Amino acid sequence: MRKSKTETAETRKRIIATAAEVFLERGLAATGIADVMAAAGLTQGGFYRHFESKEQLIAEASAAAFDMGFEKISQAVAGLPPAEAIGRFVNMYLFQRQCPGAKLCPLAHLASELPHTDANVKAVVDIGHRRTVDFAAGLLQTLQLDDARCVAEAIVSTMLGAVMLARLALTETAATEILHSAEKTVGLIVHAAADQTRLQAA
Fold first, then answer.
1. Residue 22: which of 45, 49, 40 has the closest Cα?
2. Is residue 28 part of a domain?
């Protein structure tokens, strides 16, 4: 019995959502098509009715992961005062593994594997990186900082590096120390930028 277009679309959506979680949890190379389909409660044979290749799924799953992450953070900072919103964004990104139901950022979790993916995957991740910087810059602009985008680039780079290093830490205590240190560093970056803005305005 043929599935309706609605059922087919829903199945495809389920595969992408599942892949976003499985790839981020296990890694790209260690996760096969069969793993994703099994996690979605489907047979491997149905994969190619929805996708041409694993690389296509990786690209679409990465885009979905970014979307879910931005939606979660946007909801969390909505209505907060500027400084508090920036602090919440930074804390959620750095401690994303500890957030219940959080989707890990593809940049932070898959960075070591992404250079080996195809151009479509790299394009999706590049867009995700620029969206992250734009999001941070938008929050910083509410503080009326000069060159908010440059500051945002520094903050995102700091957070991304810290999350990657924390994943390599030998103990949870060491990982937490790395993340707390990065959080303090970001605070210093924001304060320094605010001081510079005030000096230039004086």
1. 40
2. no
